Amino acid sequence: MSVQSAGRWGLVAQFPAPLRARFARNKLAVAGIVVVALFFLFCFIGPLLYSTDQTHTDLTQVNLGPSGSHWLGTDAVGHDELGRLMYGGKVSLLVGLAAGVLATVIGTLWGSIAGYAGGWVDAVMMRVVDAGIAIPALFILLVVSAITTPDTGGLIVILGLVSWLVPSRLVRAETLTLKSRDYVLTLRAIGGSHSRAIARHILPNSVSTIVVAATFQVADAILLVAYVSYLGLGVQPPATDWGGMLSAGLTAAYSGRWWLIVPPGLAIILVVCAFNAIGDGLRDAFDVKGRG
Amino acid sequence: MDTLLYLTRRIAQALVVILIVTVVVFGLLHALPGGPARGILGPQATPQQITLFNHDQGLDRPLPVQYLYYLRQLLHGDLGTSYTLNEAVSQLIGQRLPKTLVLTVLSAVVGLLLALPLGMWQAVRRNKPADYVITTLSFVAYSTPVYFLGLVLVMVFTQVVRWFPSQAPQGDTVAQVFADPVALVLPVVTGAASMVAVFSRYMRAATLENLSEDYVRTARAGGSRQRAILFRHVFRNSLTPVIAMLGYYVPVLFGGALVVEQLFNYPGMGLLFWSAAQSSDYPVLLGCVLVISVATVVGTLLADVVQRIVDPRVKGGTA
Fold it and tell me: One Pfam annotation, family name (chain B) (predicted)?
């Protein structure tokens, strides 16, 4: 690092720009926000402008290539592919967001309690987290899907239940540093309860860590649900999501029907990239440690 | 002495974690409709048969007793019997696991061979266009579902240009897998892609950290050439921690194998797991989960220990 750039960093550290300005300087993160906003418009407003029938099959219109009447062609049961992209996107985005938020909530509660309690409670709670991390989420999701076929709500809950582990570790680490701060000790000294200490001081001061974790969590959840649906055990037909649209992908790949593969795949990549970019931007703006 | 203490504590922790995993798997086994009796007698068994079996096997005893019984079975290497394949789960996994290992090790090697030079090159050319381009690409690769990449590769290399077959090598033994190396190309490349993305990031970070160390400045002041410093010192010092990261990467490797094997019809443990999920073959599913979890715990343990030994400044892991 040159002397000049070191000086520039020093200056930034001395006069921290407001949060929003720091976030806005990260062009990738701003692009992420734009992409996510566009996808929400596409999936939720799009169907109003480009109306298609996604419930009934139309066997006279199967496997058509892109054309004026079907911009992205049709799939093997005659659904318009562009319309399906909007329809599946709703599920992908909603399930991803809800599961990501749920996972963060569970992880935050678990991590703050473990970190605040300390001692053997902490040790036991964190070994449970280690065990959870040792069982890869994709595998446990497939086992659960084989036992019971979840509806969309159930899928969100299951996704949340298998992916809260990383946020819990981050929040625990944050809690460990916060719990010995003077204001927490003061609150305890004047008779404030433990839950009050967590609710009033620990959690509000961990908010940046939590928000950053939640953003990455949403990105991961969108990917995870796409994997499970692709493997045929996620969102059940006639509903679908972007991963489910790709579950017939191999047949499409052999017959060269790229329009059935490329659009949902690119949609997943763009949205996941966007959430990751937003997470990166937030992490840098908040200046917290998240994943690398 | 300090290291020995750390090692003992860390291994004890790992054992506790594996024990918790067995509790989870045991719990899932009992959450099944019909319980483990269903698992052994199969989906056709009558309620009478199940009651009789439960009594015979002591499955009507309290859960903690049953859990101990289950643990004893595990310690004897007994993972139960598959519903659909009518074979011991341990035997099925024993046949399939080596093939999965071939696939994952090949992917990991190819991935690392690309990722390490890429990451180093990025670090040397930090904040130059090449660095930004590769960073963006790894960002995209990280966000790409493995199966989507696989589908695109199948489409391009079996439809547009017909270079590689779309099916992985078949056959029961590892030797048969290697008999058809051309068919291995697409599965291995698909599996390696995300490795390249992740490990080039690690290598970039590790190289940058080493480049700012005093010994590099000393070497430079002593007149060593940049190339010599990079390869003699920085590369070697960056390599070990990055390789150690492989230990944390074990679950991702297995997850990747699941998708790659399903996509390319490669008869390894991933495909076994996937077919078991399709046919609700719980003993196989949970047996695989157990094996993968233990592998993950061992991988994490090795990574922690290696990092600790390589860099004693690293403080002893988690609480």
Answer: BPD_transp_1
CB B235 within 8 A of CB B125: no
* B 115-144 residues inside an 8 A Cβ radius of A: 139-140, 142-144
Cα A88 → chain centroid: 16
Considering only CB atoms, A146 lies closest to which of B16, B158, B277, namely B277
Task: Answer yes or no: is pLDDT of A55 > 50.
Answer: yes
Contact state of B159 with A232 under an 8 Å Cβ cutoff: no
How far B48 CA lies from chain A's nearest CA (Å)?
Answer: 23
Residues 6+ apart with CB under 8 A from A195: none
Distance CA(B80)–CA(B70), nearest Å, equals: 10
Residue A148: Cβ within 10 Å count? 11
Do residues B145 and A223 lie in contact, with contact meaning Cβ atoms separated by under 8 Å? yes
For the structural domain made of A18-48+80-286, what CATH number should be given? 1.10.3720.10
Cα gap A277→A27, rounded to integer Å: 9
User: What mean pLDDT comes out for the span B165-186?
Assistant: 75
For chain A, domain boundaries: 18-48+80-286
B257 touches A at CB < 8 Å: no
Closest-approach residue (CA) in chain A for B280: A146
Strand residues in chain A grouped as ranges (E): none
Are B257 and B103 in contact, with CB atoms under 8 Å apart?
Answer: yes
Question: What is the residue-averaged pLDDT of chain A?
Answer: 81
Nearest to A23 by CA among A270, A275, A279, A290: A279
**How much is the pLDDT for B36?**
61
Tell whether B161 is within 8 A of chain A (Cβ): no
Nearest Cα of chain A lies from the Cα of B144 at a distance, in angstroms, of 5
What pTM was estimated for this model as a whole? Answer: 0.83
Q: Is residue B54 classed as helix, strand or coil in its secondary structure? A: helix
Return the number of other C-beta atoms located less than 10 Å from residue A33's C-beta. 16
Measure CB to CB from residue A249 to each of B151, B286, B319 and give the nearest one: B151
Q: Coil, strand, or helix at residue A130?
A: helix
Residue B88 phi, psi dihedral angles, 5° rounding: -65, 135
Torsion of CA B5, B9, B10, B11, to 10 degrees: 110
From chain A, the residues in CB contact with B16 under 8 A are 127
Helix or strand (DSSP H, E) at B174: helix B174-178
CA atoms within 13 A on the CB side of B195: 32
Residue A29 burial class via C-beta count within 10 angstroms: exposed 0-12, middle 13-18, buried 19 and up: buried
Nearest Cβ partner of B155 from A146, A227, A261? A261
Residues of chain B contacting A243 with CB distance shorter than 8 Å:
145
Give the B window 213-232 contacts with A, CB below 8 Å. Answer: none
From CA B230, how far away is CA B235, in angstroms rounded? 6
Size of interface A-B (CB pairs under 8 A): 154
Average pLDDT over residues A104-125: 90
What SS3 string covers A21-55? HHHHHCHHHHHHHHHHHHHHHHHHHHHHHCCCCCC
